[in-house]
């Protein structure tokens, strides 16, 4: 039986495959119809039982089970073993070129020495960490007032880097009932708009890494460290697709402990403005403790909390926080000192009494870090590649970023590049609306119970964003059914797909180079036999893939049926679908693998026609001799042509099915995770898949798909990185690698003479070129 024989007739017509349960692919509808009450909720639930081959909710419940894949890679729990590097106190002078006409320059190196901008950066940092992490804690700058890091007053930074004079950052820090402090927009904000460029109060980086194509996630709060590593996404990066674009966390990416940051906060030299910022952040800890909003995991001394409150509080605005090392006049008493000494002795610091002594400091700092710090195994891979510098794992404290509260429907996204953290609007925000990021990373694309459990466990608060509110109104049994479906998709179907993908990977290897060397015997096989082996592997994988396809189709039937019973707004419906994302991505992944398996199988038959074996030749000659003159060759030709047309048509339909599924995933990413690296990766994947499709199946529909895909990729890139139209700060990571610092372990590192300057944001063309490069590296 050939591989295609596994498909039932409806599937050949674009319908559903036969499942391993032997039911018709449209069976769930029959079951639904057979239930008393037809389509009511109970009927749906009982039909669900019929369709799930194994119990789908275990003792622990779905919300505890689904993130298991993510939990396999805990972050920031094990200190890194870093190559020892020391950063003695030093002064570096950097010259870089200023804005006009600079947008297309890819290498910061090219910018050095040209006219216009000169910034003097004094870097004083902790000396020699035992673990070799780099600590970038105290950077103070002065210089040209038209630049972000050189503003004399520190008040107009955002105007300066966006070039919009007179319109100070369109954000304000306010108290938000039930959440503590938060950030609101003072005017309407649009996706892609740069909102803040934040410098860290402290930053610990791991050693330089070369990007390796695997998925990344946008920065998540440290409290969520166990959730931020996303499971390998079938539709997203890490997939085996030839159109795959995975460009995230370097594989060597290791975790850095919170303790490393705490210890750097203790070791860094402190001046009063920075102490004020720290005290300001610490107030958040105390507030959350006193309101019970977010109980810290340790009790803090009542005296310290009371002292901070009675100090009248430290009132800072966002501009004080975006660059904590550039906040104007240090107090007279503010000679460099340690945090403990500064907090207990510095009279100019309102929050000085927060610390009762060095003994408490570590605890307090730990609480500040826990509540406010952010970390990932890598900073942004695309920007690093664009600017020609390596990636670093990191954990850092960016005070302005720390003021952003969470929403499951975020309208802002954070991107870390070197030591800067950029905040960009990723969904429209009305004037007065709160600007929120997500703390959940990829797991924000999951059902409410899962999101809620993660936020409550890691951050100790209950999200009441509009998406959560809408999902709360879903009847309980339905919500349970949906959670079960998600769990089925991620716990059972995705592993099945992974196994099939592994088999196909082997088959691609065998068939791919056409001259496969057998590892054990060292015997080189012919192209034809290798392709035949590939076809065999594809044929072996197909039944499992078709089974998954059938199960996914049934799950979708159930979900869509039940979703249709609720009266939801289009936005709410999109959010519900986003919460079922694992099911959508399972479908896309499955469609992709089936497309590949069929292509492998059919190319094998083509290959054997091209290179018939001696036996085939003999049979063929015999047939010709016996045939009526002129008849058989013609019949054969017609048959072969028909077969080929059928095959191409089948491949086209399967490929379109894959593209449709991917397109939906992309839409959902845009609805609930816009501007995330997952969103960008998926957009790149979709773009590449559409381009591959149109190359294989030329025609107006393919062309249209490819155009649409490119637009969507540009939108995703624009949301995360800007459109290149505005001037922005290109990152000052050069400050980490100033004169005298050994950069030999960081190939391509930005050297002292190339400390970056405000430049035009990367253009879309630049970003697309880099994306393509990363993709080629992966292939
Ligand atoms: C990084 S801080 C954000 C700033 C914080 N509101 C403050 O005043 O310091 C994170 C904490 O803010 C609170 N928070 C953030 N998002 C929230 C939300 N959607 N609902 C309730 N509290 C939230 C929680 O206490 C959380 O642990």
Notes on the structure:
With 779 residues, this protein is of the alpha+beta class. The chain has a domain at 3-53 and 489-611 and 630-672. Helices cover 47% and strands 11% of the residues. It contains 26 helices and 17 strands. The strands form five sheets. Strands 3-8-11-10-9 form a five-stranded antiparallel beta sheet. A four-stranded mixed beta sheet has the order 5-6-15-12. α18 (476-512) packs antiparallel against α19 (527-564). 53% of the residues are buried. Residues 1-134, 136-168, 212-218, 223-254, 293-313, 329-360, 511-523 and 728-759 have low confidence and may be disordered. The chain binds S-adenosylmethionine. It holds the Pfam family SET. InterPro entries: Gramillin-biosynth_MTr, SET_dom, SET_dom_sf. Residues 115-151, 209-246 are annotated as: Disordered. This is SET domain-containing protein.
């Amino acid at each position: 039986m050939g591989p295609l024989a596994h498909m039932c007739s409806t599937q050949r017509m674009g319908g559903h495959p036969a499942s391993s349960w032997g039911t018709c692919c449209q069976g769930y509808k029959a079951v639904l119809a057979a239930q008393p009450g037809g389509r009511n909720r109970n009927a749906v639930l009982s039909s669900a039982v019929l369709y799930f081959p194994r119990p789908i909710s275990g003792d622990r419940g779905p919300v505890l089970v689904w993130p298991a894949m993510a939990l396999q890679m805990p972050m920031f729990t094990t200190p890194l073993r870093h190559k020892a590097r020391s950063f003695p106190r030093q002064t570096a002078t950097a010259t870089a070129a200023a804005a006009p006409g600079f947008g297309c320059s890819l290498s910061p190196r090219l910018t050095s020495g040209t006219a216009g901008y000169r910034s003097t950066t004094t870097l004083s940092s902790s000396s020699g960490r035992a673990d070799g992490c780099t600590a970038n804690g105290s950077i103070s700058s002065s210089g040209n007032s038209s630049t972000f890091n050189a503003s004399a007053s520190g008040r107009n930074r955002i105007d300066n880097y966006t070039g919009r004079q007179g319109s100070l950052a369109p954000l304000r820090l306010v108290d938000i009932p039930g959440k503590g402090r938060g950030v609101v927009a003072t005017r309407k904000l649009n996706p892609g708009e740069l909102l803040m460029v934040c410098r860290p109060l402290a930053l610990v980086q791991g050693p330089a890494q070369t990007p390796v194509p695997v998925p990344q996630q946008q920065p998540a709060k440290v409290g969520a460290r166990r959730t931020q590593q996303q499971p390998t996404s079938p539709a997203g990066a890490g997939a085996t697709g030839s159109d795959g674009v995975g460009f995230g966390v370097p594989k060597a990416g290791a975790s850095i402990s919170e303790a490393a940051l705490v210890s750097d906060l203790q070791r860094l030299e402190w001046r009063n403005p920075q102490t004020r910022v720290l005290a300001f952040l610490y107030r958040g800890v105390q507030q959350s403790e006193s309101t019970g909003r977010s109980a810290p995991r340790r009790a803090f001394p009542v005296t310290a909390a009371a002292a901070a409150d009675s100090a009248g509080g430290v009132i800072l605005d966002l501009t004080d926080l975006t660059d904590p090392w550039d906040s104007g006049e240090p107090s007279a008493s503010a000679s460099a000192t340690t945090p403990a000494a500064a907090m207990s002795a510095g009279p100019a610091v309102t929050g000085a009494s927060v610390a009762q002594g060095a003994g408490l400091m570590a605890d307090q700092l730990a609480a500040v870090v826990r509540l406010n710090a952010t970390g990932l195994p890598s900073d942004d891979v695309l920007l690093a590649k664009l600017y020609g510098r390596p990636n670093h794992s990191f954990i850092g404290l960016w005070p302005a970023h720390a003021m952003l509260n969470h929403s499951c429907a975020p309208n802002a996204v954070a991107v870390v590049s070197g030591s800067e953290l950029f905040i960009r609007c990723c969904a429209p925000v009305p004037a007065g609306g709160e600007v929120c990021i997500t703390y959940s990373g990829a797991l924000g694309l999951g059902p409410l119970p899962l999101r809620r459990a993660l936020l409550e466990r890691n951050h100790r608060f209950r999200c009441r964003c509009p998406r959560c509110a809408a999902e709360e109104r879903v009847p309980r049994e339905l919500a349970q059914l949906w959670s079960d479906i998600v769990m089925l998709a991620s716990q059972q179907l995705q592993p099945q797909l992974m196994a099939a993908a592994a088999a196909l990977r082997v088959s691609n290897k065998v068939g791919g180079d056409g001259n496969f060397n057998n590892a054990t015997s060292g015997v080189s096989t012919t192209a034809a036999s290798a392709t035949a082996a590939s076809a065999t592997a594809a044929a072996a994988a197909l039944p499992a893939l078709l089974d998954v396809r059938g199960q996914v189709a049934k799950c979708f039937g159930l979900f869509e049926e039940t979703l249709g019973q609720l009266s939801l707004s289009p936005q709410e419906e999109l959010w519900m679908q986003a919460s079922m994302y694992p099911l959508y991505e399972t479908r896309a992944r499955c469609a992709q693998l089936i497309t590949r398996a069929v292509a492998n199988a059919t190319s094998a038959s083509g290959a054997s026609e091209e290179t018939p074996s001696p036996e085939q030749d003999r049979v063929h000659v015999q047939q010709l001799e016996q045939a009526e003159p002129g008849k058989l060759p013609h019949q054969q030709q017609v048959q072969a042509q028909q077969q080929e047309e059928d095959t191409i048509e089948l491949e086209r339909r399967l490929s379109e099915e894959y593209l449709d599924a991917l397109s939906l995933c992309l839409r959902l990413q845009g609805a609930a995770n816009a501007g995330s690296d997952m969103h960008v990766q998926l957009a790149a994947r979709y773009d590449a898949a559409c381009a591959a499709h149109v190359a294989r199946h030329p025609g107006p529909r393919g062309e249209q798909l490819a155009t649409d895909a490119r637009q969507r990729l540009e939108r995703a890139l624009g949301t995360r990185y800007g459109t290149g139209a505005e001037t922005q700060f290109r990152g000052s990571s050069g400050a980490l690698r100033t004169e005298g610092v050994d950069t030999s372990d960081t190939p391509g590192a930005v050297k002292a003479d190339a400390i970056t300057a405000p430049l035009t944001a990367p253009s879309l063309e630049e970003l697309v070129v880099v994306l393509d490069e990363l993709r080629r590296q992966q292939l």
